[in-house]
Predict the 3D structure of the following.
Amino acid sequence: MATDVKVPALGESITEGTLAQWLKKAGDTVAADEPIASLETDKVTVDVPSPVAGVLTETVAKEGETVEVGAVIARIDESGKAAAAPAQKAVETTEEATPAAGETPAPREGAPAEPEPDHITTLSPAVRRAVLEHRVDPSQIKGTGKDGRITKDDVLAAAQSKDSGSPAESKAPAAPPPPPPPAPAKAPAAPGERREERVKMSRLRQTVAKRLKDAQNTAAILTTFNDVDMSAVMEARARYKDLFERKHGIRLGFMSFFVKAVALAVRDVPAVNGSIEGDEIVYHDYLDVSIAVSAPKGLVVPVVRNADSMSFAEIEKTIAEYGKKAKDGTITLDEMQGGTFTITNGGVFGSLLSTPILNPPQSGVLGMHRIEERPVAVDGQVVIRPMMYLALSYDHRLVDGREAVTFLVRVKEAIEDPTRLLIDL
């Protein structure tokens, strides 16, 4: 009985995907729930599991083809599992009949037993069988194979020489046909030559491009900047990172400080954590922070939910888990949906300053950058401090300039004096 494999539900508002790759091919045996194909959606790549165990008899869709949710992409024959058993048995029987390397076949009934030379175990099974059938001494045969190995033709030639009474020296076998020439390597570009390569955009990249352009066309995006002295956070991290890791099993990073600082700042400026829906403003009494994470196929933005009520350790563990899932390509759609505010860290790639773009329908995104030692004036003295530029892009339709600057100053104050995070100041 054949069972259809259909495109599973891919998430809210997603009705189709692209068949990125077949993980199994027609004729392969598959187990129940074993992935047989991968689908690329607007946000993530998901595996299509086999609904039953059996043999994949037919693949309906092709790689690169767009398929809708519920569409049949393959068929699996459940009875194929049982039918494949005799074939497996036949293979096992053949393996039993054919001696493995290093084994000696039992003499046939009625055939005279002949002692095997000591070094016969170094011969291949086919050559060893020919030696035993023709009862020749392999030590007297000159091999013509690679590194002087004895081939089956060498054995046959030695047997023929033995029957004719000539010296036991093999005749050189016919030369094997030359292997097909390798595919020609792509010739390097000649000086002054101009080349182009066209690659179809992935579904994820198309969606990212569309959403970013929609954000520019819809929101009134403006960016305000500030710089922050990272000395206090770096000192606290250096002092407690070993104890923190021993107690919580996770490293203490900078991101948890910024998430907590944002949670503190949105209490004073709730509009930055709001959004516009039609002609209404939606204010959230919770903070779901979207953390931009680089993945092999593009940028993904998983959501740390209820970040305002999480501890430093919980934030770090959640971010680390999302980072691993991003690399493995196992982030789900549910883990990326929602979010009321975004934090992106271009500093990990060396960015000094940038103007981050909004993640609709959110009204604020905080951009972190690399930490760089710079001379700054402190109490009338020029000192060297580890400084970071911060950038807050916001939707000016909802957030006024005064509110945006106030928000960024609150973040700066919390980072430069982390005690504020503990006493909610």
Observations:
- Residues 289 and 304 are 5 Å apart (CA to CA).
- The first helix runs from residue 80 to 97.
- Confidence is low (pLDDT under 50) at residues 81-98, 104-121, 166-174.
- The chain has nine helices and 19 strands.
